[in-house]
Amino acid sequence: MDNYTKKWADGPFKLLSTPRASLEGKPESLASRNASEMALVHNILLRGLNSIYLQAPNVKETNDIADFVKFCDAWSSILHSHHAAEETVYFKLLDEQSSQDGVFIANHIEHEKFLPGLLAFDLELIDAFGTDLESHLHHEISVLEDLGRDDSIDWEQCGKAMAQFSKKNSDRVWLIDHESLASTDILIDFHHFLGLWV
């Protein structure tokens, strides 16, 4: 088995299937595209979490510990940044535009549920929040898919606003220091869609 087909960090926290994968070549709506892109970002977060979970027991050498702590810090920083973008821009825009009242209240509550554990992780352990985070990352995609029936949402505006917020709030030095995390959690050939992240 070559490096591109091995499953390196697919568990214990389950990865998402992109909504795009279920279309089987049918045209994709903007809601599905947004949900698929969010699923890909969530899979980077889940792969990072799985990598940390699986590697932690094996890190014993002093120089490995320093590298591992840096990897954990990079993962935590990316999750904090993603959470801030969702809470500050993405959910807010979707809530304002949706004809459904309070569609993201449950997601906000889920964020609040795993944040104390994430803050504890910044100091200590994944087990304090991993299951809540996994559940939230999966649930958010189904909420986005369900909003596909809501014609009042400007999906392009929401996607652009999320991207602009992320770019505006990312620190270039931080990105250079942390880019290896995202690149290690990308798998090119998932769902037979060449070039999609999972």
The stretches of 5 or more residues where confidence is low (pLDDT under 50) are 186-198
Q: Give the oligomeric state of the chains in this entry, treating copies of one chain as homo and distinct chains as hetero.
A: single chain
The biggest sheet amounts to:
none
Output mean pLDDT: 79
Number of strands: 0
* N-C termini distance: 19 Å
Overall morphology: globular
Into which percentage range does the β-strand content fall?
under 5%
Number of helices: 6
Report helical residue fraction: 55-70%
Order of helices and strands: HHHHHH
Q: Rg to the nearest angstrom?
A: 17 Å
* Overall tally of domains: 1
Instruction: Label the structural class.
Output: mainly alpha
Domain Hemerythrin-like: 38-143
InterPro entries: Dimeric_xanthone_biosynth, Hemerythrin-like
Protein name: Hemerythrin-like domain-containing protein
Pfam family, one: Hemerythrin
